[in-house]
Write a structure and sequence with these properties.
The structure is a single chain. By secondary structure, the chain is of the alpha+beta class. 57% of the residues lie in helices and 7% in strands. It has a 5-stranded antiparallel beta sheet with strand order 3-2-4-1-5. Strands 8-7-9-6-10 form a 5-stranded antiparallel beta sheet. Helix 11 runs antiparallel to helix 27 (626-651). The longest helix has 26 residues, at 626-651. The radius of gyration is 27 Å and the shape is globular. The two termini are 53 Å apart.
Length: 656
């Protein structure tokens, strides 16, 4: 029996535990509807926490299952479905979802004009090269930008900015990225459009108003800047925290990125890629290489083929080199490798090595190609796939040299780099043409960290148009009664009509994974509210807490929201907990709107482990380990709870 238990995975044991809890709840809840909704809640938490499938797939699955309850109602003890079929897809047209789509497009428009590069230059001019000055400048700027766009978008925009600053100052990126990432998350609490939970909150409040008991006044929704004092206090506390404690809690991983002639030193120290160079060799007819494929050659020797010439023109970059390509007599190869690897290669094969690059001199010049660093962001389609699976060189023009993951490196020297499945936050070192790297800047599967290379010009002549549209959007939000979604869409479509973005770029700017996640979870929130599940959980929670002050209940709710957001998305935690918060507030005579806001803010308290998209994004480039987040994020988590609860009660006159 014990042996059988040991063979079970953590996921299997968790599934058994959740099933037991579900069966237990079914026996104590007051109605069949609550029993089924509780089961769906447990299933959602399990799917999110253990990543059985992608979280957006899990959310869509739950939505579909809720819809199927209308068909199965007679057989599962229900009079009707848990969510009316006509409301099942309301999330896709909701104010919150449309607002999030528009925010992403507006943010992409601001980035396309090159404003971020100017911001980086301005920060370096003010901050000089000292860590104590650069951290508050970078973190404060990211936090301010994050208040008007999705925090993962702000962090992705500033990843190359921080890289450039680290390159020019010599400061380790590991000392700059975590403060930047944490403050991007904190900045999302400054306005009601800074994070998905806050955008969603007003819709959830309106939904809860429809189920309030008779005689209870409906809750008012929050205006754009109602949360600004709270968000600013959180952002300032985060900056001060890193200024005071940064030297103790932030790791130092080598010397990090350097610029110009020292780039090779950076890659050598960080990835162990020393003495890498490109050489040109011709394959005569008597060589053992004749008849081999590109793949066989690379798997036999520790070199990468970055160029091929077989008499029909140069093959470089994307669509240039296929690993099935055969090597024939007279083929000229452009090989990338270390001096040691080249020595082994030339000794084992009869090849003619050119003293200098000839055929590949222009294509492989510093102006046309080089070594770069890119990151696999959360939501990338490449997660779980290896370089070989996606034909990385043929599809994207990337010759993979190394992967940095949580402070550990997999390189072409150690082997297995092309067979290692990608994970969110992986930092990849690749050889590529600058043209291919420029294309990747538009690809949502990558975040390009390397910035010091010749690449396409942005659209600086569109800066006035982008700023005008941003100001117009902000004015519509502040000074008119337009719905948030309409105001934001005005700015988004304006970016397209005025040529700041093409419509294709606008579509690419949207994280459709986030859209489907949010829209698919809204029906679950409706079921939790309308079935009475939220009210029942609130009653049980209040009974367990006993007779305690209101602020203690509010603090317990904030801790619960923090715990939820560590194991599932902040959107999911908000949808599940806002109805609970409203019912808890009604049970103790507190302000339900403030309790709902407590949840929406506390779901941004995601610093303890790298489950938040921002933390996953910076993990690879910063060389961070989970222990680094536990050390720096543990203190930040407690600080966030204390500051947010104090400010919530100061700004809104107490939860009661």
């Amino acid at each position: 029996m014990l042996a059988a238990i040991r063979t079970l995975s953590r996921r299997d044991l968790a599934a058994a535990f959740f099933a037991i809890v579900g069966i237990y709840l079914a026996g104590i809840v007051p109605s069949v509807e609550i029993a089924w909704v509780s089961g769906f809640l447990l299933l959602t938490i399990f799917l999110f926490a253990f990543e059985v499938v992608d979280i957006d797939v899990a959310a869509v699955t739950i939505m579909v299952l809720l819809g199927l309850t209308s068909l199965a109602a007679p057989w599962i003890g229900l009079e009707q479905g848990l969510v009316p079929v006509e409301q099942l897809f309301d999330g896709f047209s909701s104010n919150a979802v449309i607002s999030i789509i528009a925010v992403m497009i507006v943010g992409a428009g601001l980035d396309k004009t090159g404003i971020m590069s100017k911001v980086a230059t301005f920060i370096m001019r003010l901050g000089g090269s000292t860590e104590t000055r650069i951290i508050p400048l970078v973190s404060g700027t990211v936090g301010a930008i994050s208040s008007f766009m999705q925090n993962v978008g702000a962090a992705a925009l500033f990843l190359p900015v921080v890289s450039r600053i680290a390159a020019r100052t010599g400061l380790p990126m590991s000392r700059l990225l975590m403060p930047m990432g944490f403050c991007a998350i904190l900045g999302g609490t400054i306005t009601m459009v800074g994070s998905s939970p806050l955008i969603l909150l007003n819709d959830l409040i309106l939904t809860s108003n429809s189920t309030l008991p008779e005689g209870v006044a409906p809750m008012a929704t929050f205006e754009l800047f109602d949360v600004t004092p709270i968000g600013i206090a959180l952002l300032v506390s985060g900056i001060i925290y890193f200024m005071i404690a940064g030297r103790f809690v932030l790791p130092v991983r080598g010397t990090d990125k350097l610029e110009g002639s020292d780039t090779s030193t950076y890659f050598a120290e960080t990835y162990g890629l020393s003495d890498f160079e490109i050489r040109e060799l011709r394959v005569p007819k008597e060589s053992h290489l004749v008849g081999m494929s590109v793949d066989e050659l690379e798997q036999t020797w520790r070199v990468r083929i970055v160029g091929v010439e077989k008499g029909d023109g140069l093959r470089v970059g994307a669509d240039g080199i296929d690993r099935t390509l055969g090597i024939t007599a007279g083929t000229t190869l452009g090989l990338l490798g270390s001096a040691e690897a080249f020595l082994d290669f030339t000794n084992a094969n009869a090849v003619e090595e050119k003293p200098t690059l000839q055929l590949f001199a222009e294509a492989m010049s510093h102006a046309k190609a080089g070594i770069a660093e890119i990151v696999i962001p959360p939501g990338s389609d490449l997660i779980g796939k290896s370089a070989r699976d996606v034909w990385l060189r043929k599809t994207y023009g990337l010759s993979l040299l190394a992967i940095s993951r949580g402070g550990e490196q997999v390189t072409c020297k150690t082997g297995g780099v092309r067979n290692s499945p990608f994970q969110a936050g992986d930092a990849l070192v690749v050889h590529t043409t600058w043209l291919d790297l420029t294309r990747l800047r538009k690809d949502r599967n990558f975040v390009v960290v390397t910035t010091e290379y010749p690449h396409e010009e942005l659209r600086p002549h569109k800066v006035p148009a982008a700023i005008l549209l941003f100001v117009l959007t902000l004015s519509l939000i502040l000074f008119t009664d337009l719905r948030l979604s309409v105001a934001l869409l005005t700015g988004a479509i304006g970016m397209v009509l005025m040529g700041v973005l093409s419509i294709e770029e606008a579509y690419e700017a949207v994280s459709w994974k986030t859209v489907f996640l949010l829209a698919s979870l809204i029906p679950l929130g409706i079921a939790v509210e309308q079935s009475g599940t939220a009210a029942w959980i609130a009653d049980q929670t209040l009974s367990a807490l006993g007779d305690v002050p209101i602020w203690v209940i509010q603090a317990a709710l904030a801790v619960l929201a923090t715990a939820f957001t560590l194991v599932m998305s902040n959107v999911g935690a908000t949808v599940l907990l806002v109805p609970l918060a409203v019912n808890m507030a009604l049970g103790v005579g507190a302000n339900p709107a403030v309790f709902a806001l407590t949840v929406a803010i506390a779901t941004s308290n995601s610093f303890l482990i790298p489950t938040h998209q921002v933390n996953a994004l910076i993990m690879g480039p910063g060389g961070y380990r989970v222990a680094d987040y536990l050390r720096a994020g543990g203190i930040m988590t407690v600080l966030f709870l204390v500051v947010s609860l104090i400010m919530l009660n100061l700004v809104f006159g107490g939860a009661g």
